[in-house]
């Protein structure tokens, strides 16, 4: 693995972040080797060359320590937006674990997005953090079928493994759920897939599911996606071109019906799916109630 220089690890403070209510963003790695056919992070606008090659930031933990110590406001540190914090190199280098140790030490919360069951290794630290601050773990799952998962996310943990990880996290008292996005048009946007994801989420103790019924395509990412479609789903590229042209947002043609089915299933199982409810729930989950004598 290549090491690259870094001047900063944490973003600036955000008071009202609409994306899961995080206050800071953290990237210890650059690039991702999951090989997902749909990944928007490989788009030219993000400026990540050789995206499939994972690189680690030099002195990232010492930089992070300095930044956490110096911040005037504590809050929730989000990670996993651009690169998975639990890529295969994390097993050896433990940068994410080291970051969690510092997040715990300085009294911050954490929100992790990942497709790896390696996050289970750090349950002990996540439990410690949750004793004083919010903890949110988001496992991306877009299909309940392992064979399809292996096609579209070839180097990530299988869907069944991610469901099992949610179960283990939930049983350990960690607020965990599913990022159900992107749901690929003509591949995953069907009633059976959505119902099965919700059912397995319930069976494995997921607290929430946050979906997006469609995919975004732009720049070189579109070319990458279409090339993968040609290899994995012959003739499907032509269907995308005919349906969406050069649109950035490629929404499922069945979106309204899927939302109805999805909402009904989540309500039936008591699973949260609205952003404000998820944020409110995880930020209060497991926290001591403040009593007043007056």
SS strand fraction:
5-15%
**pLDDT < 50 stretches:** 289-294
Gross CATH architecture: Alpha-Beta Horseshoe
Average of per-residue pLDDT values: 94
Strands ordered across the widest β-sheet: 2-5-6-7-8-9
Helices and strands: which structural class? alpha/beta
Give an account of the 3D structure.
- The chain is α/β, with parallel strands linked by helices.
- It has a single domain (2-284), classed as pyruvate-formate lyase- activating enzyme.
- The chain is 39% helix and 14% strand.
- It has a 6-stranded parallel β-sheet, with helices on both faces.
- α1 (60-70) packs parallel to α3, α3 (95-105) packs parallel to α4 (123-130) and α7 (191-203) packs parallel to α10.
Write the layout of secondary structure elements.
Layout (H helix, E strand, L loop, with lengths): L1 E3 L19 E3 L2 E2 L24 E3 L2 H11 L5 E4 L10 H4 L1 H11 L3 E6 L8 H8 L4 E6 L5 H7 L6 H13 L4 E5 L10 H13 L5 E3 L2 E3 L2 H14 L3 H9 L4 E3 L3 H15 L5 H10 L10
Parallel strand pairs: 1-4, 2-5, 5-6, 6-7, 7-8, 8-9
Antiparallel strand pairs: 3-4, 10-11
Helix pairs in contact: 1-3, 3-4, 7-10
């Amino acid at each position: 693995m290549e090491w690259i220089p870094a001047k900063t690890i944490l973003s600036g403070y955000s008071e009202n972040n609409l994306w899961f209510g995080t206050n800071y963003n953290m990237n210890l790695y650059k690039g991702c080797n999951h090989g997902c056919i749909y990944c928007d992070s490989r788009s030219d606008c993000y400026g990540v060359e050789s995206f499939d090659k994972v690189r680690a930031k030099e002195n990232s933990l010492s930089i992070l320590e300095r930044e956490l110590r110096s911040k005037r406001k504590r809050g929730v540190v989000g990670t996993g937006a651009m690169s998975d914090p639990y890529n295969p190199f994390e097993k050896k280098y433990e940068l994410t674990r080291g970051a969690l140790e510092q997040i715990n030490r300085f009294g911050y919360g954490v929100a992790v997005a990942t497709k790896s069951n390696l996050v289970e290794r750090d349950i002990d630290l996540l439990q410690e953090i949750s004793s004083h601050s919010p903890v949110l773990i988001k496992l991306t799952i877009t299909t309940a079928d392992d064979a399809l998962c292996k096609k579209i996310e070839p180097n990530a943990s299988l869907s069944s493994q991610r469901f099992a990880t949610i179960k283990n996290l939930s049983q350990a008292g960690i607020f965990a759920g599913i990022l159900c996005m992107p749901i690929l048009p003509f591949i995953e946007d069907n009633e059976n897939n959505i119902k099965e994801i919700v059912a397995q989420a319930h069976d494995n103790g997921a607290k929430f599911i946050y979906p997006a019924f469609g995919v975004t395509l732009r720049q070189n990412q579109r070319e990458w996606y279409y090339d993968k479609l040609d290899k994995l789903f012959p003739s499907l590229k032509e269907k995308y071109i005919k349906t969406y042209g050069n649109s950035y947002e490629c929404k499922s043609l069945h979106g309204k019906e899927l939302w109805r089915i999805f909402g009904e299933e989540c309500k039936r199982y008591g699973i949260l799916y609205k952003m404000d409810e998820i944020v409110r729930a995880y930020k209060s989950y497991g926290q001591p109630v403040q009593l007043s004598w007056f």
